[in-house]
Structure formats: structure tokens, C-alpha cells
Amino acid sequence: MAATKMGVPDAEAPETIVWQGKYVVAKVRGRWEYVGRTRNIRAAVILAVEDGHVLLVEQYRVPMGRNCLELPAGLIGDEDGAEDEDDLIAAGRELEEETGYRAAKLEDCGEFFSSPGMVTESFTLVRASELAKVSEGGGTESENITVHRVALGELTDFIAQKRDQGCGIDVRMLMLLGEKILAGE
Predict the structure, then answer these.
(1) What are phi and psi for residue 24, nearest 5 degrees?
(2) Is the distance from CB of 83 to CB of 49 less than 8 angstroms?
(3) Sign (positive or negative) of CA dihedral 78, 58, 170, 96
């Protein structure tokens, strides 16, 4: 059944742009304040699990004021002239740039929304497989990414260690911990 706006407070209120930068726009609709990406920019988040290991990245995130442990990810269509960039091409580029691994196979797992009560941003989850190490990774010169290849059986402890070190943990880690959390482990 399709969702309906009928009877939802503020759903039909006009949307007002409060502020806009190169990548982010702040908006108001009725009582709601929220942000989104400009120019239809989206993100690709890459789930690279193979041989019982997952590729993770750690990088300093200015809004958080600390390092964050995440799945590899990057923007799609953020470069001038690349507004129609293909999600899988962007995901492959970002995986290699951030982790140093190239995937022979990339699979679109669908569109997801990060924090729908506050952010309009969506991301495409991409499963990467048949991985080959081709470089050290680490991102571009404006990034300082540390690559972690973590055994799935050690993931819970690894995340706990990173949290104890003051590292933020991206919400998408829940998909890797899901069964353990449900089982109460």
C-alpha cells in the first residue's frame, strides 16, 4: 500500500530553503527542520565481505569531532558534469580509492535512508565481491582513511575496542551485528 500524506501535519506546507552550500541544504516545512544534499547528490555504501572478513574504514569526521568506524562509502554525482553518474561505477571507484580493493562484482542492494526524521539523504547499498587488493587505499589527499580488514567472528570485539578508544560507530554497523544483537550476544 502506498504511503499517503493526507492527515499528516505539515505534509502539505510549503518547503523553504533556509541555507544552501555546495553540498548541503537546510530546509523548513511547517514545524520540521531538516537537511539534504544539493544537486541530487546521493551516496553509495559498500558492503565488502569475503573469506569471512569485512572491509571497514576509519576516518576523522569533522561534524563529530572524532574518528568514525564505517563501511566504505562515497558520494555519487558530486563532481561537476557527473550528476548522472551510475551508482555501481561510483561504488567501485570509492571502494578502490578508500580501501585499495577492486571488486570484480558489484550488486545493487537497494536504496536506504540514513535518518529520515532529520535528513533527506539516501544511499545505495552495494555488495562488493571477488575482491583483489590493488593498492594501499586511504582515500584522496583530503582524506586520511585507515583500512581495517576484520574477521566477522571478531567484529563485536573490534567495534567495542574502537568505541573504547573514543571512535564513533556508524549506524550501518548494525547490519553486520544484527543477528548477534537479536540473539542477545
Answers:
(1) -130, 145
(2) no
(3) positive
Angle (CA) 108-144-83 rounded to 5° is: 40
Give the whole-angstrom CA distance, residue 173 versus residue 46. Answer: 12
Q: Is the dihedral of CA 90, 91, 93, 94 positive or negative?
A: positive
Check: CB of residue 59 under 8 Å from CB of residue 148: no
Q: Residue 136: name the closest of 125, 128, 124, 145 by CA.
A: 145
Question: Residues 6 or more apart from 110 whose CB is under 8 A from it?
Answer: 124, 125
141 is catalytic: yes
pLDDT tens per residue across span 65-107: 999 999 999 999 766 666 678 999 999 999 999 999 999 999 9
Q: Which of 141, 143, 154, 185 is catalytic?
A: 141
Residue 14: DSSP 8-state: P
